[in-house]
Design goal:
The complex is a heterodimer of chains A (112) and B (114).
Chain A: E1 4-7, E2 10-14, E3 19-25, E4 33-38, E5 45-50, E6 54-58, E7 61-66, E8 71-76, E9 85-93, E10 99-102, E11 106-111
Parallel strand pairs in A: 2-11
Antiparallel strand pairs in A: 1-3, 3-8, 4-5, 4-9, 6-7, 7-8, 9-10, 9-11
Chain B: E1 5-7, E2 10-13, E3 19-24, E4 31-38, E5 42-50, E6 53-56, E7 65-71, E8 74-79, E9 88-95, E10 104-105, E11 109-113
């Protein structure tokens, strides 16, 4: 079964900073990778996904996937207080159904 | 579109009692997933249905947990003889067809077992 490790567990950054969140997978079989964001007391919501090695940018958010090193990262440029949330990375695990396996998350706090 | 609807939002049970959690997926979505979220374990996969058929229940504690999807508009997760360690937020999610599609989560049911 896929095991997903996230680092750091928590992070406090000042407004305007560049933030980097990391994720490492135990299984190279995953084909697609996601970042979800969960604000306090709310449902997790999909942020970005990537299906092949490389980078993808959407606004202030960039994700980077390196399948060879099983490493997946999220970078936030010009962090805002509204970015404060739990960030969850996930990869699919095939088996019989292609479910998403999530990491335990990184709790980000952006201070004004 | 109301999104994924979960009821109740909060449920408190005594040790040994039964708890039934309800989920209404987004209309037109054929895949329904159940997850459990705790501080220590994070977001854990429990079970998955596609077109109402059970596909993968590898995350379900076998003895006391069961899930059903009797029709395309709702799924239930039943926990028999609840234990304090079952206390968690139970999240239901749906997607168009499963696989690589975006998961849309409900707001969850917070279960507290006293």
């Amino acid at each position: 079964q896929q095991n997903v490790q996230q680092s750091p567990e928590s992070l406090i950054v000042p407004e305007g900073a560049r933030t980097s969140l990391n994720c490492t997978f135990s299984d190279s079989a995953s084909q697609y990778f996601w970042w979800y964001r969960q604000h306090s007391g709310k449902a997790p919501k999909a942020l970005m996904s990537i299906f092949s090695n490389g980078e993808k940018e959407e606004g202030r958010f960039t994700i980077h996937l390196n399948k060879a090193s099983l490493h997946f990262s999220l970078h936030i440029r010009d962090s805002q207080p509204s970015d404060s949330a739990l960030y969850l990375c996930a990869g699919n695990y095939g088996g019989s159904g292609n479910k998403l396996i999530f990491g335990t998350g990184t709790l980000l706090s952006v201070k004004p | 579109n109301a999104g994924v609807i979960q009821t109740p939002r909060h449920k408190v049970t005594g040790k040994g009692q039964e708890a039934t959690l309800w989920c209404e997926p987004i209309s037109g979505h054929s895949a329904v997933f159940w997850y459990r979220q705790t501080i220590v374990q994070g977001l854990e996969f429990l079970t998955y249905f596609r077109n109402q058929a059970p596909i993968d229940d590898s995350g379900m504690p076998k003895e006391r947990f069961s899930a059903q999807m009797p029709n395309q508009s709702h799924s239930t997760l039943k926990i028999q003889s609840t234990q304090p360690q079952d206390s968690a937020v139970y999240l239901c999610a749906s997607s168009l067809v499963g696989g690589a599609e975006t998961l849309y989560f409900g707001s969850g049911t917070r279960l507290t077992v006293l």
